[in-house]
Fold this protein.
Amino acid sequence: MTAIVLRLVAVASLMFALLAAEFAATFVFSGWGRGGVAIIAITMAAVAAFGFMDLHQEDVTVWLFAAAAVLWLTILLGLGSLDPFTRSLFPTNSMTP
Amino acid sequence: MRDAAVQHSYLDDGRTLRSWLLTTDHKRIAILYIVAITFFFFAGGFAAFLIRYNLISPKGLIGSAETYNRLFSMHGILMVWFFLVPAVPVTLGNFLVPLMLGARDLAFPRLNLLSWYLFMAAGVVALYAVVGGGVDTGWTFYTPLTSFYSQGHVIAAVVAIFIAGFSSIATGLNFIVTIHKLRAPGMTWYKMPVFLWSLYATSVILVLATPVLAMTLLLLAFERIFGIGVFDPAIGGDPLLFQHLFWFYSHPAVYVMILPGFGVISEIIPAFSRKELFGYKFVVWASIAIAVIGFLVWGHHMFVAGTSLYSALVFSLLSYMVAAPSAIKVFNWIATMHKGYIRFDAPMLYAIGFIGLFTTGGLTGLFLAALAADVHLTQTYFVVAHFHYVMVGGMVSAYFAGLHFWWPKMTGHMYPEMWGRAGAIIIFVGFNLTFFPQFLLGYLGMPRRYFAYPQHFEALNLLSSAGALILAVGYILPLGYLTWSLLYGERASANPWGATGLEWTTASPPPTENFAVTPIVTQAPYQYRQAEAVNHE
Amino acid sequence: MSDAAAHEFQFASAEHQRETAISGIWLFLATEALFFGPIFLSWIFARHADPSAFDVGGRRTDLTIGLANTALLIASSFAYGVGLALIGFGRRRGMVAWLAIAWALGAAFIGLKFGVEWRTELSEGLFPGAHFSIHGPARSGAQLFFAFYFFATALHGLHLLIGLGLLAWIIIQAERFTAENHTPVHVVGLYWTFIDVIWLILFPLIYLIGRAS
Ligand code: HEM
Ligand SMILES: [Cu+2]
């Protein structure tokens, strides 16, 4: 019992630390910038999945489902942004607000 | 509960309407679904009939472009979301997944019933949209037409599809979890019939693609209601984002509309060739490969939409990859038939028709996936013919094949064989007559989605409309004789085809609990004895 | 129902049923993740169209409330975890207390988000459309930001509301659960934390990226 609660306390503290790091990346260490924020956010999601949702205790089936979600999101966001990031836009004079 | 002596057929287990509407028995839910999708099939078919009627004359017989637009939109929406996507999974799949696994039911029977109610609710909203005047956007709902200019019941149509989507997700989720968790003792992954593998692959798509469509439709509804949104080019939004999201769902969804068909055919070909399925593992992994690679090719629907050339190239190349697993399957079916002792019963006739039509449809897909050819062929009848070959020639044939094959199991009655064969042949002939001319029309440059056309396309259009009439006869025929067989059909034995698979080891129709004793699986699937063929040579 | 060995007829054992339910909810969460996919992709598209104008919108959000809400959700997931651990040891009263805390933290999020934050933003004319109050060259991009913002937070809020309903249902039914038999508590907990995970991604997209350099 206490072991579990202590572990949860540790996870929550880690989350708050990461939240602080996110702020640091945004406002203090401008070198980290947006990339840093993104990496920390993904880390926080992973910490929640393992720390709060106990992903590591589940069987292969569950792992498979979780991995599928990550992989398919990557496909959607990756192949999806391929187009706008490689598109050449030709300015038109109708683009006034 | 486990009393083997009391063995009710699932059909006798309660005869009231209530016992059907509140059932959680997967077999009864399958029957509920058959009734529902049959209705939508004929509703969508009626719209198709009017479309072909209109196109008999170059000036259009309906007389209104607006009405014509609403007809083809209604046809597409009903056929895609209310027939093709659910067709095989919710009927044959619902019925057979537990039976083939040796399980008593799906993992979540109440969720299964809920999915039927969601489907019906969606159907009611869709019919409301149709009766209220319909939509003129096509089944693809492209923005900004849909968000700002279209006059129809866009919101109702979108809500209908949104709800139907959750019905799909529920079914897919149920199948995946059931296949993972409810296999009978000894039923290892490689002992599963290919039909289950196909449904597994289908479910992967349903579960991972449908949510994307659902959210996309919400974004669309938001934009239509508030007159502003992320697809709105006036504030720097991107209408192509809608198309990306739509096709992220809809290309994989076209595989939802064919993979279950592959599964059905993979059961029927060995059964009627009395041979083991050739290259089982290849067929199995081809299904999974299709489910995954199918997610990487959606951009081929947007080649001329203004996406970047670089991404168009990537999507064109990836599209070629997705054809390989489908080709593998075709080769495996043919190799299975090779030197088999082939019986030409109705299911087999449909299956053979399927192979020919699907191959034609798949190969023309490759024409379209070629960037340069597509610039010429896109938005023409060539595309219409392509996808009807795969969806109607392929999937609808497969659905009929499966329906005939498992009809004795589901109802306990045989259908009249001669009528069955006649139906299969009429459908094959009618289908080709309807859609082959459309390849030519498209090649000659007739654009899709117009209610009138230049004079010189008249002959081919007439041919196509005549074919549609034959096709209609072919589809109405089974409605008649299958219904007839429910009352007068010969009683079916447990295994009328001498087929392998756990579903044939239990009674026809099966008892509510499926199996008196949970079966223990020791054999690989499709162990049709070669000896049988030798005897007949 | 309260019989620890009870299970539905399609399962071999109660443990089999539990395992199946847990994998079912995980697969459901996978679909939920994809459900939010288009929101993330719209953010990418929208910001890419004109990053600096989009960020002008981002900087108009209320960072203090955003931060407070993030902390609330993390704390709430923590509280739920403690409640779940307690019922694992059969301590039902303790579970109810911690789940009530989790519920209250979630409700506080809703209150801050929609009662305070949205209210202010709506009154400041930040809802995109003809009356949008940001003018000048960044007007379009900022509208795009707020179209994303209102849509994404509404959807997330809706999930949280459903979560509050489920949590309340667990608390009301608390009598049913024992150390051996509390699958619903586990299942709802997974959903509850998942809503938190979605927020952990939305939070930087809304509040931080626009302010970073
Ligand atoms: C063998 C692999 C396949 C390839 C490479 C392929 C390729 C394509 C391409 C490139 C297009 C876009 C044509 C255009 O709009 O210019 C297309 C359209 C279409 N395909 Fe396929 N296809 C394949 C299989 C299938 C299958 C199996 C189905 C359905 C069961 C299908 C259904 C459709 C539909 C419905 C459309 C038209 C969508 C619309 O614009 O309304 N395809 N296909
Ligand atoms: Cu496609």
